[in-house]
Structures are given as structure tokens and as C-alpha cells.
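Q: My labmate handed me this sequence with no annotations at all. I'd like to see what the chain might look like in three dimensions before we decide whether it's worth expressing. Could you predict it?
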Amino acid sequence: MVQNKFHKNFTLNNHSFTSVDELLAFTKGFSDEIHQFLESWFSKDDYIIVQTSGSTGAPKPISLKKEFVINSAKATGLYFDLQANTTALLCLPIAYIAGKLMLIRALTLGWHLDVVEPNSNPLVTIDKTFDFSAMVPLQVENSLSKLNLIKKIIVGGGVVSNSLQEKLQEISTDVFATYGMTETITHIAVKKLNNFIAIKEKPSINNEIASLKKVLKDEFYTILPNVTIYKDERNCLVIAAPKVSDEIIFTNDVVNLISDTQFEWLGRFDNVINSGGIKLHPEKIEEKLAKIITNRFFVAGIPNEKIGEKLVLIVEGNQQEINLETAQLSKFEIPKEIYFVNEFVETKTAKIQRKKTLAKILPK
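A: Here is what I predict for the chain of 364 residues:
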């Protein structure tokens, strides 16, 4: 299947187009990266080549069927009710799948798309409203004062911290965390981060009148239509999504399955620390530590003869006093040592490379 057309309602930075040639001519002077990608998209090939982010290994190119990319775009539009004439903001790099999909959604669904420089503060020059956008957590953090200009935002490319989620409770924008990867053509599951509907608590013995309870956090991801999930023997998520992938996808994400359509993400299997037979999930420990540490940090296991792996805390920046007793950690979750590193090693998309950062402090 060759994609050689686009929705008649599609506009790019307030410009409409009557043909692919006209669109390509416009993007040639507008953005070299967008132009090159659209040349590939409108080519006779049935697939596009995209680059993985490199967060869990070396970045690598993979091939995605255009048919599957379109299916992914339509699934997002259906789930979030984003029909033709939706106004959308593209503020992510077009080099990676998340940026590419914003453009393909607009082309496929007939959105009015505005493109801005993909920097850490994308709304700084924005003075108009949008229906939809996609951002990474750092962009959301830096845009809080103007986030209400966008009705719905999906956030990917990293974990949304507890502190950021608390700030989002005061924002009118509906914000959703996403779960997905390049192989699944961005997200196959989402969870809401704010603006929860108040629910009624069941009457207690001492209180016959039900009270309203505002849910402050949703721990569970809900899968999109046409996706099936289960776990393998490692308790890692397995994804069957025939609309976006020919193959079953075996992830390294340890999860709790809540139902056929919901799961709780616990952390990465390759990050799990086995300390004296106790399996520790760094991401869950980091969630508690985030309440007391303002610098970037992570926890990891380093080799230890007695217990296999010793839990340590690595903090970016100058040495400082950290009172671990205030983090409400269990006795197994308390780091045995704290290391300070001037700068973390990152991927090109600003994700922390834990193993390479850890190598900076371990003895050669």
C-alpha cells in the first residue's frame, strides 16, 4: 500500500495544499527534516525507516509499514476524539517516531498543524490555543504557566515525576501519560494524570452518607482498541497489536495485569536489582525518593560478593545532604551508598543512560 495522498482539511502553519508536490515544495523551504521525511512518506515504498531512541540499547533503524503507521494515527484520533479540523502543535523532533506520528496524524485525519522549534520550552512564543499536542516531561514542566493553551496533551519519552503530576492538578489541560515504543508506532496504552472525575466512597459503618473522593493518581494504563496484552515468565508485558505490528512484541517492562485492558507498570526488567534474594524495582524506589530529592537521580545495583547486588543512589550535581529517613522507604529500599556525578550520560533525546552513567563511578 502506497500512501500518496492526504486529508483535504490538512494545513501546515496555516497553509493548505492541493497536491503532494505543492506540499513538498512548501516544506523544502520550511524544514529540511520534515521535507525529507515527507519525501519518504509519499514515495512508492510500503514502509518507512525510523530510528529508535536508544534509551534501552544502541539506537537502530527499523522498518515500519505505512499501513500500520496510518492505523496508529487513526487509533489516536478515535481514542481522544480528534477529528478533522483539530488544531494541533508539533513541538517534538521529527527525527524520532513521536514527532513523525504527530505529522502523520495531521495528514491522515485532516488536522490544522502548527510546527515550532522542538526545544525545552515550546510554548514560550505561543499565544493561540490548540486542541492537542505531544510533549516530553521536561517540555511540560517548563510550559506549566501556558499549558492551558492546549486542551489535551499526551506525554511520553520519560516518566512523569510525582512533583510534576502534583502541579498538573491545578491545570485545566487534560494530560495523559503514554506507554509505547518505536516498534509499536508510539503509544498502545495511556493513563490520565489529572482532572479526575470525583467518585463516591462507599458508606462506612460510622458514616451512613457517602462522601466524595477525588482520585489524585491513576496507577493503571488502559490499552487502546485492537491491542491484547499478557505477561511472560519474567512478568514482563507482551503485546499483540496486529493493526500496528506483524509480530508479537516481548517487552522488558515488568507489570501487574489489572484486567484484560489495564496494567500497572512496575519498572524495567533489565533494571531489577537482586539484593540478597530480594527483587527491587528501581522505578518504584525512585518514586518515593522524588519527594525529597530535587536534582536528577536514579538508583541501581552494583556488584557485591555477599548479597549479589548492593542498592546505591546516584545523584547528578554537587555533593549534598540527603535524609533518606523522610522518604518512607522500606528497609530493603534504603540505598547503602550515595554517589554524586557532575553530569549524567544521556541519549540524544535526553533520556538518562543508567549503565553508562554507573560506569563512571564503578572501579575499572
